[in-house]
Write a structure and sequence with these properties.
Layout lengths: L4 E2 L2 E10 L2 E8 L5 E7 L1 H4 L4 H13 L9 E7 L2 E6 L5 E2 H8 L4 H20 L12 E3 L5 E3 L4 H5 L19 H4 L6 H17 L9 H10 L14 H10 L11 H19 L22 H8 L7 H18 L2 H6 L2 H18 L7 H17 L4 H17 L1 H26 L10 H15 L2 H15 L6 H41 L2 H18 L6 H13 L2
Antiparallel strand pairs: 1-2, 2-3, 3-4, 4-6, 5-6, 7-8, 8-9
């Protein structure tokens, strides 16, 4: 039950909730100002060392004064409950914005990232690592200002996992590989999470996804993600390279700190804006033809008075080379006269072309070379998660084998190509959102329909479509490949369904044990019940398919004395 007041604040309404407490809109009795008040349940305050850690975190958060960080105003206690009041930001979270708009233009995403960098720099300068940077912790005001909130929440409230190493802290979809491995989180861990946030803003999906948090964590540790330009072809290469560098597995391969990343993003915006103007690197636009100003001064003098000195670009350099060549030609000489002969130049060109044909002529592969190519392609498909590496294996190893000797390799290569085709169909269905009518055949249309249901999380409907489609395709030689892909996809979906059933059974049993512990009504049993409820919320709080279990866990925490 929500309180009517907490400390000096009259509670107006609940505006949010999390695994460790609720956030309310509260009005201060004396000032009449409205704040966001986060209230922690009394049960959490009884955990060992919680009060000391809570106060230490509050002291650290008071140091954070930045326009892009939600400001903390005060903290206190009300009975056995602890609370703190912070700046109330009208607007919405970045998560709700993405749910509504799906994705945002890359320019806006970079602008948001620049604001986040400013917040992270302020935090890192004060020795605070966020550890849980994600869209739901980013508030976007109606004016477009972005504010980072919930600093140190994992450190403050998850007291059974407060150690610097050995525990996993963060949200699975945005967690750095070192956090997933229980290693020490640092500044570059927050930068990895920012890279995942940028990826989600620009592409409309997270770098890695899965049916369980454990599966997602494993992909962060070992998997490869699709490059953003696969989903947003017009994304500038500079932006894509920045995101990919932020998502490097090893921290030292990322940007060194938030300030360096901030300056890098600002430079990208300037370069892309400059490129969009159509100005050449020599400083001239196609429309500029006048060489003097109205006052009679030279154009170069006018430009130099208003712009910084620039190094010659490609256009200026080419102009200088042409002038030099013309001057040398005017001087004459044996070599210049020889090269000025048309027949000599034609002969030289013919030699160059003939040499190119000889150098790049196709070479017949030996049997051992072809076997090695097949094994390399097979290893990539067998060991790597579906992604760009599969496409590379097809282009570099499998396709050349079929082209070299199709009869000898078709049978061995076909199963691998079928897997790659299924991956590419899945990627097109996710990224391009092609209409079913655009499919090459009716079988492919229905296959893509099943993929769409799977992407939306409706695994049961996807299974029904595929199970009904397979008997129709069976025995049809023209649709044998689609039939094989349908079988592979059906097996994957049924495996996901089995995992979901097992998860539901596990959570149901866990809730029953928690209720039994709570009914015993001893300090030890209540603590055990709270641990179970907190674990369910921590692992499945962001999973809509587990909302029923998360709701029951939150109710248990709120009602547990």
């Amino acid at each position: 039950m929500d309180p009517e007041r907490i400390g000096p604040y009259q509670i107006l309404e609940r505006i949010g909730s999390g695994g460790m407490g609720n956030v309310y809109l509260g009005r201060h009795d004396d000032s009449g100002r409205v704040f966001a008040v986060k209230v922690l349940t009394a049960s959490l305050a009884r955990e060992s060392g919680f009060v000391e850690r809570f106060n230490r975190e509050i002291d650290a958060m008071r140091k954070l004064k930045n326009p892009h960080i939600v400001e903390l105003f005060e903290s206190g206690t009300e009975g056995e409950s602890y609370f703190y009041a912070m700046e109330y930001v009208s607007g919405e979270t970045l998560m709700s914005l993405l749910r509504r708009e799906k994705r945002v233009p890359w320019q806006r995403a970079v602008e948001i990232a620049i604001q986040i960098c400013q917040a992270l720099k302020a935090a890192h300068d004060n020795g605070i690592i966020h550890r849980d940077l994600k869209p739901s912790n980013l508030l976007v005001s109606p004016e477009g200002t972005v504010k980072l909130t919930d600093f140190g929440v994992a450190q403050v409230f998850a007291s059974n996992r407060l150690t610097v190493t050995g525990g996993i802290i963060g949200t699975a979809e945005y967690m750095s590989p070192e956090q997933a491995q229980g290693r020490r989180a640092g500044k570059q861990s927050d930068l990895y999470s920012l890279g995942a946030v940028m990826y989600a803003m620009i592409t409309g999906r997270t770098p890695f996804s899965g049916s369980t948090a454990v599966e997602v964590i494993q992909k962060h540790k070992f998997g490869l993600f699709d490059r953003p330009r696969l989903y947003v072809p017009d994304l500038p290469v500079r932006v894509e390279d920045t995101i990919c560098r932020l998502l490097e597995k090893e921290p030292e391969k990322r940007f060194p700190d938030a300030l360096v990343l901030l300056r890098h993003l600002e430079q990208i915006m300037r370069l892309e804006e400059f490129a969009a103007t159509g100005v050449t690197l020599s400083g001239e636009t196609p429309q500029e033809v006048s060489t003097t100003t109205a006052a009679g001064e030279s154009r170069e003098e006018a430009l130099s008075a208003s712009q910084p000195v620039q190094h010659p670009g490609p256009a200026t350099l080419m102009q200088s080379l042409i002038r030099g060549e013309l001057a040398r030609e005017a001087e004459g000489g044996p070599l210049s006269k020889l090269l000025n002969n048309t027949y000599v130049l034609v002969g030289l060109l013919a030699l160059v072309i003939a040499g190119g044909f000889w150098w790049f002529r196709p070479r017949k592969l030996s049997a051992q070379e072809m076997e090695d190519m097949f094994r390399r392609g097979e290893a990539i498909i067998g060991q790597e998660d579906p992604g760009p590496e599969w496409t590379r294996a097809k282009a570099e190893y499998l396709d050349p084998l079929l082209k070299s000797d199709p009869d000898a390799w078709r049978e061995r290569v076909a199963p691998l190509l079928s897997k790659i085709e299924l991956y590419e169909l899945t990627r097109r269905g996710r990224g391009a959102r092609r209409k079913a009518a655009d499919a090459k055949s009716e079988g492919e249309r229905l296959l893509q329909l099943a993929l769409a249901y799977r992407q939306m999380g409706d695994l049961r409907r996807a299974e029904r479509v595929l199970a009904a489609l397979r008997p129709i395709l069976a025995g049809d030689p023209e649709r044998a490949q689609v039939y094989d892909m349908t079988g592979e996809l059906l097996n994957e979906i049924r495996a996901q369904l089995d995992a979901a059933v097992d998860r539901d059974r596990m959570l149901a049993a866990a809730l029953e044990r928690a209720e039994a512990h709570a009914a015993e009504n001893t300090a030890e049993s209540r603590a055990a019940a709270r641990d179970i409820w907190s674990g369910i919320i921590e692992l499945y709080g962001d999973d809509p398919s587990a909302s029923e279990f998360v709701t029951k866990a939150r109710e248990g925490l709120e009602n547990c004395p």
